[in-house]
Amino acid sequence: MHFNFNQTMPIEKNLQPSKTSWKGRIACQYVDSDLRLDTSQVKTSVNSYVYSLFECGTAVVKFDQNEVIVQAGDFLIFPPHIPPVVLKTSEDYKAMCLIVSSSFVYDCPISRNVFQTATFSLINTAHPNIHLNKFAHNAMRTTMLMFMDHLEHSHGHTLEALQALYGLLLSDAMAVFERNTNEDFTSQHAYQLFIEFSKILRQHFRERHDITFYAEKLNISPRYLSMVTKQITHSTVATFINRHLMLEACWLLKTTDYSIQYISELLHFADQASFSKFFKRINGQNPMQYRREQEPHL
Description:
The protein is of the alpha+beta class. The protein has helices spanning about 100-105, 110-120, 135-150, 160-180, 185, 190-205, 210-215, 220-235, 235-255, 260-265, 270-285, 285-295; strands spanning about 20, 25-30, 50-55, 60-65, 65-70, 75-80, 85-90, 95-100, 130. The protein has 12 helices and 9 strands. Strand 1 and strand 2 (about 25-30) form a beta hairpin. Helix 6 (about 190-205) crosses helix 8 (about 220-235), helix 7 crosses helix 8 and helix 10 crosses helix 11 (about 270-285).
């Protein structure tokens, strides 16, 4: 039996396409059996995260190479380069989708404490949907509606409001994930290794950028660590290390007056040129350009 969550939690808004985004970096919208997700509202949407909360009906969603059946109360996260593909839906299918560009994630202070653990742990290509109970679904849905309200009524502190809402959404999702994770899944050796790798990475990513270090800490081979990480997240170990470094670099550039040279030393790059090359490859601009863009928000 599939529950229609809207029977007990009516949507305050009509299900209509939302054409509102914030500076091309974040958008929140409704989708249904006739209305598809509009990713054009966010620049570089291919490098964005999509968070989908399913309200009514059912759908078959392609997640990487897997086809997943989702229903009312399910919550999914689509990472960059794995865009959501809805193959078919029931007539009463409705969902709420939040599109968040990687640049917004990098700028969000809360991301430093929440994003790495939440997003990295939640994205699992074999089990991508997290089923929410009615209380958790209502809380998540309320956050989505608050996103829409702030996007429709922008003000001088919209950035801070959106960052706070993003942190709230990730924290709530992680809490549900931890409650719902069953013993069979968490006992899997590969998943436990990945969780341990994530913990060690948070402690050492600034000074150690090589996979061999983390593999030795886990008493496994670099090849096996690569295989486990790829199996669980469909990303490479290097991707995880680089995301942590980029989040930290953006934070330091935005919130301190440290020189580019000093930041490159803090993050243990060989020299400033290497750091600048890394930053531009990931973020599309060099560190000085990024810092200048942030100055009005400091």
